[in-house]
């Protein structure tokens, strides 16, 4: 007997919470701290299936480091990590205010995600190259050789902006710090990172690449192409997927995190993969070291899904109260990375509430001073200063070709003269 054909329909994933009713976070499937095994670095990719569906965690609810992933690490490194997280949070908070005060046009925080970039940076070596998104400012703020005032000059697009106002605020570029230029076109840097890692191997070099992408951007085809190249050639690269649950107002399930995990995408592509508590500084450090060692020993790529929560708005142009419950960050089961590492260090007897408060104030003062210093160099929003018209034509060709010289002459003819624009030429 022929059955009546059913009308077809599609499944559209929905978040489990919306403004007015709290999120049901059981969809995260959180493993207890210490419960997940740690295989040797030469594990076969196919044998990491369980690691891509459970959650590597080290810090338990009492702040103890437990289980096979608990890293060997001295207190000084952990203190450095905690201080860098506090520094990053202070920077973000002040830049948010600076945007509201119309000193900068745009800003993006990494509130609640600080552990991921900072612990990862501490697992890499000089010369390695990160291909970050706009939410890994911790890679820079953990370093003491990056001038904070210069970062703010980039945000202001002013006379000391190393990017000369040609990049959106937050799109820094520091080759010497292993920080590849951020691209506004999401996911492009993921495939570039794999290419950079392959080039390093082709040259017989020892440097590895670290690629970064958000949960939402994994829906771009560049992500999948990157996995193919990384897998086929066993590229020396760490493939970081930061699953902070949201892509602006789009829930992570829409990008493919509902029926499977982002880490499992890696296993499906023949890549050793881990799903890790991104708010657990020790777990991030341990997993990053594990993946870096695999890359350095020619064992190929590792995909790591970092589970975290974007506690702030997507950017200063976003209002998350329109699409998610206001108190979700507080209810997120993996807590706050700063509070968790602080609790651990106090438990070890190498940190105190007083030291914490002192460090917080120290960084608040540092950021305030850096902002003042940056403001001395002006900017379009501060004093109407914009770069001279010539800068639009420079830094592309060593010798400017005739057609550009011609365009420059025309542009000069249309540009306001310094007499009409008192800010020009400062
Ligand atoms: C190719 C491309 N598509 C869309 C955008 C617009 N856009 C900018 S950020 C963003 C959300 C990205 O979310 P996710 O990848 O999860 O990263 P997160 O912001 O959460 O860190 C979108 C859609 C873009 N910049 N580039
Ligand atoms: Mg996201």
Overview in brief:
The protein has 13 helices and seven strands. The chain is of the alpha/beta class.
Task: Note down, in words, how this protein is organized.
This protein has 426 residues and is an alpha/beta fold. The protein folds into two domains: 31-316 and 326-375, Thiamin diphosphate (ThDP)-binding fold, Pyr/PP domains (Rossmann fold, 3-Layer(aba) Sandwich), CATH 3.40.50; 388-426, no CATH class. Helix content is 36%, strand content 8%. The protein has 13 helices and seven strands. The protein has helices at residues 75-100, 114-121, 138-141, 148-156, 188-202, 221-232, 262-268, 281-296, 328-331, 337-348, 353-375, 380-383, 402-414; strands spanning 129-131, 209-214, 237-243, 246-247, 250-251, 272-277, 302-307. It has a five-stranded parallel sheet, with helices on both faces. Strands 4-5 form a two-stranded antiparallel ribbon. β6, α8 (281-296) and β7 (302-307) form a beta-alpha-beta unit. α4 packs across α11 (353-375) and α5 runs parallel beside α6. The chain is globular, with a radius of gyration of 23 Å. Bound molecules: thiamine diphosphate and magnesium ion (MG). Thiamine diphosphate (TPP) binds at residues 133, 135, 184-186, 214-217, 220, 242, 244, 246-248, 310, 314.
């Amino acid at each position: 007997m022929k059955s009546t054909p059913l009308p077809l329909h599609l499944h559209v994933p929905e978040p489990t919470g919306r403004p007015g009713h709290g999120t049901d976070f059981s969809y995260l499937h959180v493993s207890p701290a210490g419960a997940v095994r740690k295989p040797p670095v030469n594990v076969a990719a196919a044998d990491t299936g369980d690691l891509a569906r459970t959650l590597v965690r080290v810090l338990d609810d009492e702040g103890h480091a437990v289980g096979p992933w608990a890293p060997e690490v001295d207190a000084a490194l952990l203190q450095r990590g905690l201080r860098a997280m506090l520094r990053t949070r202070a920077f973000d908070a002040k830049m948010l205010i600076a945007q509201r005060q119309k000193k900068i046009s745009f800003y993006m925080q990494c509130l609640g995600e600080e552990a991921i970039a900072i612990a990862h940076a501490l697992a890499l070596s000089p010369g390695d190259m990160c291909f970050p998104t706009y939410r890994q400012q911790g890679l820079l703020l953990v370093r003491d050789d990056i001038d904070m005032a210069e970062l703010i000059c980039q945000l202001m697009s002013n006379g000391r902006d190393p990017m000369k106002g040609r990049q959106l605020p937050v799109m820094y570029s520091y080759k010497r710090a292993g920080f590849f230029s951020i691209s506004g076109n999401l996911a492009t840097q993921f495939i570039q990172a794999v290419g950079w890692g392959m080039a390093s191997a082709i040259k017989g070099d020892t440097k590895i690449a670290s690629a970064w992408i958000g949960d939402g951007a994994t829906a771009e085809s560049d992500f999948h192409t990157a996995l193919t190249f990384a897998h086929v050639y066993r590229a020396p690269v760490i493939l970081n997927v930061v699953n902070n649950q949201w892509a602006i107002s789009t829930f992570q399930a829409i990008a493919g995190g509902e029926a499977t995990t982002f880490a499992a995408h890696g296993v499906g592509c023949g890549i050793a993969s881990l799903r890790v508590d991104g708010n657990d500084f020790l777990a991030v450090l341990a997993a990053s070291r594990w993946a870096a060692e695999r890359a350095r020993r020619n064992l190929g790529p590792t995909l790591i899904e970092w589970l975290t929560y974007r506690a702030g708005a997507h950017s200063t142009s976003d209002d998350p109260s329109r699409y998610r419950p206001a108190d979700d960050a507080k209810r997120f089961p993996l807590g706050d990375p700063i509070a968790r590492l602080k609790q651990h260090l106090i438990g070890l007897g190498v940190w105190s509430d007083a030291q914490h408060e002192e460090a917080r104030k120290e960084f608040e003062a540092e950021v305030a001073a850096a902002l003042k210093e940056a403001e001395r160099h002006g900017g379009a929003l501060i004093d109407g200063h914009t770069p001279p018209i010539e800068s639009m034509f420079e830094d592309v060709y060593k010798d400017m070709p005739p057609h550009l010289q011609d365009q420059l002459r025309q542009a000069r003819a249309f540009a306001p003269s310094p007499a009409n624009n008192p800010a020009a030429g400062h």
